[in-house]
Amino acid sequence: MIFFDNVSKIYNAHSAALKNINLQIQPKEFVFLVGASGAGKTTLLKLLIREEDPTDGKIFLDDLEITQIPRSSLHHIRRRIGMIFQDYKLLPAKTAHENIAFAMEAAGRTDEEIHEDVAQVLDLVGLSDKIDNFPSELSGGEQQRVAIARAVVNRPDMILADEATGNLDPINTWEIIKLLQKINELGTTILFASHNKEIINSVDKRVVMLDKGEIISDQMNGKYLV
Fold first, then answer.
1. 90 and which of 62, 126, 135, 153 could share a cystine (Cβ 3.0–4.6 Å)?
2. What residues contact 7, with CB distance under 8 A and at least 6 apart?
3. Mind listing the pLDDT tens digit for each residue in 86-142?
4. pLDDT tens per residue, range 48-59
5. What contacts 97, CB < 8 A, 6 or more positions away?
6. Is 37 within 8 Å of 195 (Cβ atoms)?
7. Which residues does residue 65 pair with via DSSP β-bridges, in sequence order?
8. Are 55 and 8 in contact, with CB atoms under 8 Å apart?
9. What span, in angstroms and rounded, lies between the C-alpha atoms of 222 and 146?
10. What are the counts of helices (DSSP H) followed by strands (DSSP E) for the chain?
11. Hey, which residues does 82 pair with through a beta bridge?
12. CA dist., res. 151 & res. 145, Å (int)
């Protein structure tokens, strides 16, 4: 479970990115985090992976207060969280296989595990035939699929997606959403930050809406109507 307990992030007297956030996300949920640019979506994700720290409040991952974990131990928490970004963040000089294997190597996985699991996740995302292709040889949708494979290969408890379809055309956007729904059905919690109203309103999932750093709506099977 993810729990934000009265969390605020204030950069200066004129800029409060988040204000008094109280939010619970249960295991295996698929939650859309929505709002206009500057609403606080990305800040909330950054706090969850301790890229930044809150000004006030506490953040829990199950029974762990992650705001109190020493930075030297954060890798244990981050292994439980997969990240997907709008710009993919693939290493351009590495093939699809090598990009995914690199994430496994960083987590201390064995050569045998890497050989087996990379093939499995590339099959999951439908890119078994692109295993030796470099990012420049892949379409945007294919690059995002590799990024998703990299995010799930270490079997995280949750995936955080920050505008993960923002650079994709409508067809590839839907393919990525369907893929993330499949991953969610396999038991992984998904927190998806987006402002794509068409996607959000077509998928019956929980919708948490932010405006100026505050939660203004939290609805199961919600809609993004603003």
1. 135
2. 18, 20, 21, 22, 47, 54, 56, 57, 58, 59
3. 899 999 999 999 999 999 998 888 999 999 999 999 999 999 999 999 999 999 999
4. 999 999 999 999
5. 118, 122, 131, 132
6. yes
7. 60
8. yes
9. 30
10. 7, 10
11. 159
12. 10
